């Protein structure tokens, strides 16, 4: 079972009202939540560690995970409120404003974390859950303890407007990136982390020097690339009519993990023997499932029978 560790929240999606103006409709979301749902829909055993409220939104989040075959037994339930992400769409591109102070997701501590089940095959981290304390320290501690035994994938999915202490966040992220087997970043994330000097290959080398074996870079319509041991593999994006980009990267990540799991390569020994080109099939599958997500509104990844 792949354990997705991080935020579950409600995306408030803008809609045009019949009499004019804009309203916001709540949809389940969050980068890590979206990846867990996508894994479930792709037929991969998945579970989620997250702080989830007992309020109506939190109940909806738990119900949605269950409906998508994601194990909810590791959720940390509390009376704190659910995080809200106000989504702004410009030409289909999403930006976010988060209402997260004192939320259920943000409030978990290292002592709240459950033990990992024997069925654990890999851990996936990222998103805004790596930014705010105390939850960020909880996930950092879990990553440090698990990385020696299980494959770890991280997608920081950086939201600069959400970061209030950049130095502390960079230090925490650097530690976690050094413990990861696979780091996936957008080209924008990569520039934020490294300062943007040099080519994408030069910037990826900075991340690999921290300890990651594979660095995956996504570039929207220009496709994705995987880098390992000085070699690069490129995969083209799949053609799609874009409705919006909400959940696209999260679905791509699920596709990568699903392909590795189903090809029996999602373990530390197998990953250690793989090349950049060996990862190309996983990237292509990630691009395929992401293309479905961008073709419809919101974070709505495909079921495996839709592919």
UniProtKB/TrEMBL annotation:
GO terms for molecular function: kinase activity. PROSITE patterns: PFKB_KINASES_2. It holds the Pfam family PfkB. The keyword Ubl conjugation does not apply. Residues 2-302 form the Carbohydrate kinase PfkB domain. InterPro entries: Carboh/pur_kinase_PfkB_CS, PfkB_Carbo_kinase, PfkB_dom, Ribokinase-like. Keywords: ATP-binding, Kinase, Nucleotide-binding, Transferase. Belongs to the carbohydrate kinase PfkB family. This is Carbohydrate kinase. It comes from Sulfitobacter pacificus. The lineage of its organism: Bacteria, Pseudomonadati, Pseudomonadota, Alphaproteobacteria, Rhodobacterales.
